[in-house]
TrEMBL record:
It comes from Dichanthelium oligosanthes. This is Glutathione S-transferase 3, mitochondrial. Pathway: Lipid metabolism; leukotriene C4 biosynthesis; Lipid metabolism; arachidonate metabolism. SUPFAM superfamilies: MAPEG domain-like. The keyword Mitochondrion applies.
């Protein structure tokens, strides 16, 4: 027979403890916001395609060169608006989905704000005046910061509680 101490037994029990998560119906809003953002992202990609044809910037060229294309800045602003949205997308998706597990309505609201702000961020950037991206579009930073707080809250609760 092998005997273990109380401390070893407690450690083994804690290590084996699982956390179960129940998805509430409100989590559906989180998922729908994710779908809405996917549509906005597709719309942005179509806008880049239209700009490629309009400004004659063909694949595989990522950005136009001003010495070779008089409309380089206009195209580059459209391209950059979409590219920046793609760069932020992984963080947005993870923070939305994880933060939404504990705070589904708050996360969905922040996710919707982020999605709308990203639309205006892109539209502002596409004017060819980069500062225009921040007029309404700058709200996306506030929204993602809120999602980070929701996700941090979820993580802290996982650590200090046995189950949700």
């Amino acid at each position: 027979l092998i005997s273990i101490s109380k401390e070893e037994k407690k450690f083994a029990e804690e290590a084996a403890m699982a956390v179960s998560i129940e998805l509430t119906k409100e989590y559906g809003y989180v998922v729908l916001v994710l779908v809405a953002y996917a549509f906005v992202n597709f719309w942005m990609s179509f806008q880049v395609g239209k700009a490629r044809r309009k400004y004659k910037v063909f694949y595989p060229t990522m950005y136009a060169i001003e010495s070779e294309n008089k409309d380089a800045k206009l195209f580059n602003c459209v391209q950059r608006g979409h590219q920046n949205s793609l760069e932020m997308m992984p963080m947005f998706f993870v923070m939305l989905l994880l933060g939404g597990l504990q705070h589904p309505t708050i996360a969905a609201g922040l996710g919707l704000l982020y999605t709308v702000a990203r639309f205006f961020y892109f539209r502002g950037y596409a004017t060819g005046v980069p500062d225009n991206r921040l007029k309404i579009g700058g709200l996306n930073f506030l929204a993602v910061f809120g999602l980070i707080i929701c996700t941090a809250s979820f993580g802290i609760n996982l650590v200090i509680r046995e189950t949700l």
